[in-house]
Specification:
By secondary structure, this protein is mostly helical. It is built from seven helices and three strands; from the N terminus they run H-H-H-H-H-E-H-H-E-E. It folds into two domains: about 60 residues, Arc Repressor Mutant, subunit A, CATH 1.10.10; about 60 residues. Strands 1-3-2 form a three-stranded antiparallel beta sheet. Helix 3 packs across helix 4 and helix 6 crosses helix 7. The radius of gyration is 22 Å and the shape is elongated. The chain starts with 6 loop residues before the first helix and ends with a strand.
Length: about 150
């Protein structure tokens, strides 16, 4: 079982394989397809990538059936978020405009009163960190500094 890729498909898979924001499984699948198109056998690909032969075969079958969309996993079941990104963008704007320190408890209160969003202080700190807002906690205060990449 061998994959035949056009030059555009190979380039797309290469870029996907190197993308920093793509999920690891998707990158691995792109790599599997590129190796297969270069003539690697299924067993050799599986040994090289430390995965099973079945994984390699499934990836090739998914590619043949669905193309590029077959490389991504389907969305999985999970709890729906209790907050919206807009809620935190407003909080971020407020923190940047006022240039003062807020405790996660104060942010929690503000979200509850203004947006009717109930989150724990720990979750608030996690979300701020995920949104690249560095918090320096001193006596439970969060001083906002935008992380520069």
């Amino acid at each position: 079982m061998k994959v035949v890729l056009t030059q555009n498909e190979d380039l797309t898979l290469f870029e996907l394989q190197k993308a920093s924001n793509a999920p690891l499984r998707t990158k691995t699948r792109a790599y599997i397809l590129r190796l297969s198109s270069q003539g690697w056998k299924i067993e050799k690909i599986a040994d090289f990538l430390f995965c099973s032969n079945i994984t390699v075969r499934r990836t090739i079958h998914r590619w043949n059936k669905k193309g590029l969309l077959g490389l991504w996993d389907k969305p999985r079941a999970g709890r729906t978020p209790t907050w919206k990104p807009e809620d935190f963008s407003e909080i971020e704007d407020l923190l940047i405009q006022e240039q003062c320190t807020y405790s996660s408890a104060k942010i929690q209160q503000k979200l509850l009163i203004d947006k009717q969003v109930s989150l724990s202080q720990r979750q608030i700190r996690r979300i701020l960190k995920k949104n690249n807002i560095a918090g320096k906690e001193q006596n439970n205060q969060i001083k906002i500094n935008k992380i520069k990449n």
